[in-house]
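anyone seen this seq b4? input:
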Amino acid sequence: MRNVLLFLIIFFGCAVPTPKQQPTMDICLNDQDILTRISETADIIHQENNVLVQLRAASMEKPIEFATPIPPGGGPLAEKISIQYTGSLTSATEKIARKLGYGFESTGNEPANPIMVNLDFHNATAFEVLESMGWQAGPLTGLMVDDKRKKIKVIFSGVN
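predicted toks r here
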């Protein structure tokens, strides 16, 4: 009896379980169905690619637009002035504003190293002098002339 029991344990204990059959796809596609599916997939990929291109274009930095200043026909900005000055932008703007009878205002955080300008004008319009100062100041600083309030404003932006 022991031999039979030992035989049964060894025989059935070492038996390999039968593998479960994987479900099979009984879909039989013809060439036309395959081409249709490939075409649909290509259309979806093309649409998604267009969306990605639009998102990338929207995220790209917009070009800087410059307003072209129009020289004044008359008034204080058309006055001829002579100035020879090398120093900070704020003090130069303040001097010119006083010459023209304008007020002066500064907004934003002025950099630790002041923005320097070099002015050497003889008999030039105030507009030309201010335009030169704006070009020398660079893209992170703006000069704004407010004719209605009779003020010249220096606007600092960017990282110090």
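Strands lie at 80-88, 103-107, 116-125, 141-146, 151-156. The longest helix spans residues 31-59. kinda curious what u guys think
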